[in-house]
């Protein structure tokens, strides 16, 4: 990648729209490029100001506080055993209806608050799980790209595009980046393969992209030791063997 290409990644990097190989290359670049560092900081600050998707989780003690408030509400004092006058009975009836309505409203509010808290708590757990998985994936990617025996190979794709395979025998894995100029149709998908011996090909599936997806950056375990990494275009559910190969990266 040329210096001009590296500078052009400033906006994409600030918005986290680069693949793992581009990210690694750009992060090495900004260690020595003060101009790019400044641009990244400015773009990220602007993006954070425009973002408006934050939300807060109601505190777990919401239900306890509501119930405590109900307990502190003054109740009607006990009256005389004699029947009240008609006007008094009407007032008592109105007061009881009001109290019942207020209690019902408190119960509904408490229930709605608890339900909202439960839903948002579930979302927080799911988000935390996704973040943890992303952090593990990022750490694995960086370990591969930082390996001293890293070897990077590329090959063009039929129809336009490029496949890049960064392999480390020490890590027993590769980071694969693929960008096709033409996306497959909605009922087709790119499928990844490894071939250990080209003299007696026995392709092993290494991954399947979502239908219609034109690019990907992912970790593929066990690539080192193979002779070829291939990409084919297949039906959306994939094929047991490649039928329409669109790229082959020689690994040896």
Give a structural overview.
The chain has 252 residues and is of the alpha+beta class. The protein contains six helices and eight strands, in the order ααααααββββββββ. It has helices at 3-7, 10-14, 20-30, 34-50, 62-72, 86-145; strands spanning 151-156, 161-168, 173-180, 188-195, 204-208, 215-221, 228-235, 245-250. Strands 1-2-3-6 form a four-stranded antiparallel beta sheet. A four-stranded antiparallel beta sheet has the order 5-4-7-8, with no helix packed on it. α5 (62-72) packs antiparallel against α6. It is globular and about 75 Å long. The two termini are 22 Å apart.
Brief rundown of the structure:
The chain is of the alpha+beta class. It has helices spanning 3-7, 10-14, 20-30, 34-50, 62-72, 86-145; strands at 151-156, 161-168, 173-180, 188-195, 204-208, 215-221, 228-235, 245-250. A hairpin with a 4-residue loop joins β2 (161-168) and β3 (173-180).
